[in-house]
Design a protein that fits this description.
Layout: H1 25-45, H2 49-56, H3 58-62, H4 65-71, H5 79-95, H6 97-110, H7 115-119, H8 127-143, H9 146-171, H10 176-204
Organism: Conyzicola nivalis
Protein name: DNA-directed RNA polymerase subunit beta
């Protein structure tokens, strides 16, 4: 964490969904759904590209605490839950673009699925490319096909998880702590990818609320 709360909050790779919301869960959930729908509606109704760019870069200026208070306790199979996961993934990528790009590139080399094509990152994938991918996914949520953007994020999670497992195997004998950390991250990314894929299916069915 930084000491200045107006700056973006720093996250490590193991802090998915760890924040608590307000004291009234029912009220928090209502606010979460209302704000998520309002945010998406605002972006889709505006013809000003700057609106989307401000939403994409929101956590760069304001940090993630406000979004955490609104959305972190929402169901993973909901609109605010999906938005929270996408923003958090973007923040984690931007805090370690080199490391994330390395894990993503490793995963793309060993994962024999269509996920690399679905994610849509240039190959080879360096820190600039992985950072731009995160922004493109968020832009897609706000001005493109919402379900497709969720599928791209889910593919990113699966590819990076595969990279984590591969690197964990390499380092496990030398630095078991690092291997354990990467294995845990892989499990978390796999779960997040599954959740985002479910949200994509719900959105296509008109059931993502």
């Amino acid at each position: 964490m930084t000491d200045e709360f107006h700056k973006p909050t720093q996250y490590s790779g193991d802090k998915f969904d760890t924040f608590e919301g307000g004291e009234d869960p029912a009220q928090i959930l209502r606010i979460a759904h209302d704000t998520a729908h309002a945010l998406v509606a605002r972006a889709r109704s505006s013809n000003d590209p700057a609106v989307v760019e401000r939403l994409v870069a929101y956590t760069d200026e304001h940090g993630v605490d406000a979004l955490s208070e609104l959305w972190a306790r929402s169901s993973a199979k909901s609109l605010p839950g999906a938005l929270w996961r996408i923003y958090l993934l973007r923040l984690l990528i931007r805090q370690d673009p080199d490391g994330t790009a390395y894990l993503f590139q490793r995963g793309s080399e060993i994962l024999g699925t269509i996920d690399t094509a679905v994610a849509g990152a240039p190959m080879p994938t360096g820190p600039d490319e992985i950072t731009e991918l995160a922004d493109e996914i968020l832009r897609g949520l706000f001005r493109g096909d919402f379900a497709t953007a969720l599928d791209r994020a889910a593919a990113f999670c699966r590819i990076t998880a595969a990279g984590c497992v591969s690197v964990a195997d390499d380092v496990d004998l030398i630095t078991p702590e690092r291997g354990s950390e990467l294995t845990t991250r892989a499990l978390r990314l796999t779960l997040t990818g599954d959740e985002l894929s479910t949200c994509a299916r719900l959105d296509r069915a008109g059931s993502l609320d």
